[in-house]
Amino acid sequence: MTFQEELIQLLKAEVQMLKDLLKLSLEKTDVIANNDVNSLTNITRKEEILVEKVVDLENDRVKVLDSWGIPIDTPISDVIKKLSENENTEQLEKHKEELQTVMDDLRVRNEENAKLLQSNLDWVDFNINLIASAETPTPYGQGNEKNEGNKIFDRKV
């Protein structure tokens, strides 16, 4: 197998894994909006598995670059430029662009999910503070005494 074929195979696999991650991120948006914690946990587990697979593919890509004598930190764009002098690189360029597009979409979706999660956390915090500041009635009906200890949560803790 040639270097270009190996690289194309790895890029295809990475793109597919990232598309699967994007699909999960889209599902996660709905789950977060619906406050479905159990489904969120399941999606997060699936994401962890896919991320591990992407890391493995990235390690394979590094090994391929190294085995062909290319520095492992060489950007894919530079690799394509070097190959274009000798070979037809249209397919490699196509997969690189698809990889970039999926990664950009995934980044945007993850930022949106992070904002939704933060919004939900802010709402929970607001409700906790609201409950904590509410005074409860005197338990024994003792008239006019003002009792600071009649709160659901003690803020001093």
SSE layout and pairing:
Layout: H1 3-33, H2 37-67, H3 76-84, H4 90-133
Helix pairs in contact: 1-2, 1-4
Please provide a written account of the structure.
The chain has about 160 residues and is an all-alpha fold. The chain has helices at about 5-35, 35-65, 75-85, 90-135. α1 (about 5-35) packs antiparallel against α2 and α1 packs parallel to α4. The model has no long low-confidence stretch (mean pLDDT about 85).
What gap, in angstroms, lies between the N and C termini?
66 Å
CA-based gyration radius: 26 Å
Order of helices and strands: HHHH
Shape: elongated
**SS summary, helix count:** 4
Number of strands: 0
Q: Determine the structural class based on helices, strands and strand pairing.
A: mainly alpha
List the main descriptive attributes of the protein structure presented here.
Methane Monooxygenase Hydroxylase, Chain G, domain 1, 157 residues, elongated, mainly alpha, single chain, 4 helices, 73% helix
